[in-house]
Amino acid sequence: MVVKKKKSVRNDASMGVSLDMSMDSMEETRFKKKYQHLIHKLSKKLHFTTIELECLLIIYYKLQKEGEIKQPGVTKTQFRDVLHCGFDMTDDNLMDRIFLAIDKGPSSYVSMETWATTLSLFLRGSLEEKIEFCFSVYDIMGEGILGRDTIFYLLRNSLVSSTGDEDAEESIKDMIEVITKKMDLDRDGKISFNDYRQSVLKQPMLLEAFGQCLPSRNAIHAFMISFTTNPGKL
Question: How many helices (H) and strands (E) does the chain have?
Fold first, then answer.
């Protein structure tokens, strides 16, 4: 699947203009009426206005309709394509972990609420929200700590994926020493969530120290201007 840029979704409803110029007005009206309660619910807890949420859910709806057969939602494969092509999230080694952090359910579909919640985090999430998300991606064992084996696995996959150097073990061991020294604040040989959080709050550049699990700034800006006139500062 090739993700197409949604040029036609606009944040102009206040001026009486259709949210999506490629969508039949009656279909759009039915859509907004059907999901008005969900939109109202999400507007209270996410970083989007009501109109922005309408636009984002219409994008979801159109992705759902792209399926060859009628499907109950956007598939995880479709969402993976959005992350890969639309958000420059190309670390395939972390993609399964990212999906587990986003949605731990067994379904092969991503719900509208999960879609909107994930985009809220990616596009306008606070540093605290991103810290919690990234750590959950990195915490492979689900123990609330990043041990040396986990760190080695994450760094090795990240380094091999970006450089193609499969004989990078010594470099990785050196990196582990540097990162552990910087982030293991209680000096117990492991990086706990508190170690990670405090380190990132002091030096935000450490947020994705173990691999990319958030969109790039350029990708965020490009996606934001496709559905809102208020992309904000990045």
Answer: 11, 4
